[in-house]
Amino acid sequence: MVHNCFIKCQVCGKITRIRLQVGWLPEHPIVVTCGECGTSLSGKVTIGQEQPGLGFAFDNADIVIDENADYMVECSGEFPVMKQGAAKDPLENPITPFIRIMNRMDSNDAYEEFCKSVAAVMKTKQQWGFYKRILDLSGDLNNKYLLQEIRKMFDEKVMPCRNELEILRAVHMVEIQGFIGPLRPDFLKNLTFSSDILKLNMDQTRQLISFLNSNPGYSLRELQALIYKMLAEFLEVFQALIPVLAVQYYKDGSVDYESEGTTTSNFDTVKQYYLDVYEALGNLLIVPVALNNIKYRGDYNKLNPIEARNNTLSDFISLTKANRYKYCIDAEIYTDKLKVIINSKLRNAIGHNDVEYDPASQKITYIPNPRDRSRKEEEYLLEFENEALRLFQGLLVTAEYVYRLRQLELMINGCVPLKP
Predict the structure, then answer these.
(1) Model-level pTM greater than 0.85?
(2) In whole angstroms, what is the distance from residue 391 CA to residue 184 CA?
(3) Which residues of the chain have pLDDT under 70?
(4) What domain count does the chain have?
(5) Domain ends where: 99, 123, 151?
């Protein structure tokens, strides 16, 4: 269903027609721009599900009744939409975002899978208070309050928690159930890949764990805490990223980034999260890189010879994040599984404040090389958000790797797996 709402900009007085694709989410952000003066007219849409109803709230704009519109914006809380410049007249674009997305899905059940993914993460967001208590207490696996909180979330028959290994598994279920399952279901289809980490050369994995724990900032507990921090940050921006999550269910190449965009976010909405997840995964990359070292070179400390001057994990730690990402290669399985998209030049441009954003076209213009300020490159907001989301999805895969290493650490320290 499509609903029309008319809003009047408090700055220039121009009228914008909001052509909203009414979806199944109870509420979602709405971020549009006045086509006349460029003022942000962001707000929130609330949609009654059990009792029908629709509400709008905007900053810098007033809702008016059936006015002749100067501009029109197509909006959706779930899907990419046509940008304002591409949809001024609804008669020129009668197809709704829902119909467009259904025609582009890469399989017959892709839309249903997308909805399940969104619903699962929204449930995680609702239950985050319970989940976070478990994660916060998990620094001490023998904490009696940790077991108490686990019992509130998971049935004892499913999660008996008889020793530290089983308690660790219960804690990890927060990551599986709340994030990895909804956002990287492909990774969970082959759990033997993850469990095979336990079968790598035991002496090398033992040395890897010792190396990590002896380097400040890279101990397994510190890496785990970093993952937990990013889970919380992701939930804060998730609703802004739902339309770009939908793109991941499209057929390849079916998005026109020039004419299609989003009305749940702008560049500032996602920028800080992008920077944080880029930095976090840059630290966590030491784990898949080291696992690759063991699998392909038989030595946790022997890097892929991408650059002759970098040979060891200590060399890797000394690298900038941009140079660390060079080791995130498809040819070696533990980094290939991350499936990230990296634009280190854009990240550095953001860090140097060498970025401009045009809200109407949703185009990000940046200087890739601060030494040559005459050359600029461009990227659209949906592309940028896809990179941020893919970085987070890659981080979720590293969470599985860290979990396996923590299992090994417990077994090395004498904790024995118990029979069912």
Answers:
(1) yes
(2) 12
(3) 49-51, 85-94
(4) 2
(5) 99
Residue partners of 54: CB distance under 8 A and separation at least 6:
3, 22, 45, 46, 47, 48
Instruction: Please list, residue by residue across 41-77, b when 16 or more beta carbons sit within 10 angstroms of its beta carbon and e when fewer do.
Output: bbbbbebeeeeeeeebebeebeeeeeeebbbbbbbbb
- Would strands 53-58 and 377-380 be described as parallel, antiparallel, or unpaired? unpaired
Contact (Cβ atoms closer than 8 angstroms) between residue 246 and residue 106: no
Token code pair at residue 252: 């390849």
Residue 418 lies in a domain: no
Under 8 Å between Cβ of 208 and 409: no
362: left (phi over 0), alpha (psi -120 to 50) or beta: left
Residue type, 300: Y
Quote the distance between the C-alpha of residue 325 and its chain's center.
17
Q: Which of 229, 251, 228, 262 is nearest to 384 (CA)?
A: 262
Total Cβ atoms within 10 A of residue 40? 16
Q: How far is CA 266 from the centre of its chain?
A: 16
Q: Which residues contact 128 (CB under 8 A, 6 or more apart)?
A: 232, 235
pLDDT for 51: 67
Long-range (24+ apart) CB contacts under 8 A made by 316-320 are 316/286, 316/289, 317/215, 317/218, 317/286
**What is the spatial distance between Cα 302 and Cα 312, in angstroms, rounded to a whole number?**
5
60 and 85 share one domain: yes
- Give the DSSP per-residue string, 95-118: S-HHHHHHHHBSSTTHHHHHHHHH
The reply to whether 405 falls in a domain is yes
Q: Are residues 139 and 181 in the same domain?
A: yes
* Residues 128, 121 contacting (CB under 8 angstroms): no
My answer on whether 260 and 310 are in the same domain is yes
196: its two tokens: 């095979």
Residues 6+ apart with CB under 8 A from 336: 329, 330
Q: Which residues contact 9 (CB under 8 A, 6 or more apart)?
A: 15, 16, 34, 36, 37, 39, 41, 60, 61
User: To the nearest whole percent, how much of the chain has pLDDT over 70?
Assistant: 97
Residues 63, 191 within the same domain: no
Domain extent, residue 78, equals 2-99
